[in-house]
Design brief:
Length: about 120
């Protein structure tokens, strides 16, 4: 079987749930900017536990409730669109960890008749 793939860029932005931009949640600002710029899509993942540069543990455990759980926003699109987004996000990102890698897209979209 031959699998047809295409190359794209994967952008990951690691932030905290309490991070803000212009008085609102940073994760919302990032997703809305990606949508405004016409990127294929964005997914925000909320982690139950993590830590960053400070080594301070953020956890959703009941005995140690954190209001600053780790978030990861993933975006996949062609390299030019991702690079344009990274440039547009620069004023928002502060101390965020941002990674970029090349990925192979195996499938995007849906087949006719399948929902």
């Amino acid at each position: 079987m031959v699998i047809n793939t295409t190359t794209a860029s994967l952008l990951r932005v690691f932030i905290g749930e309490s991070d803000e931009y212009q008085g609102g949640p940073l994760h919302e600002a990032i997703v809305l900017k990606a949508r405004e710029m016409g990127l294929a899509g964005a997914t925000m993942l909320r982690g139950p536990m993590g830590y960053g540069r400070s080594s301070r543990l953020h956890s959703s455990k009941i005995l140690r409730l954190s209001a600053d759980l780790p978030l990861v926003i993933e975006l996949v699109d062609d390299e030019a669109r991702i690079e344009a987004l990274v440039e547009a996000l620069q004023p928002m990102l502060g101390g965020a960890l941002v990674t970029l890698e090349t990925v192979r897209v195996v499938r995007y979209g849906h087949e006719a008749g399948l929902d």
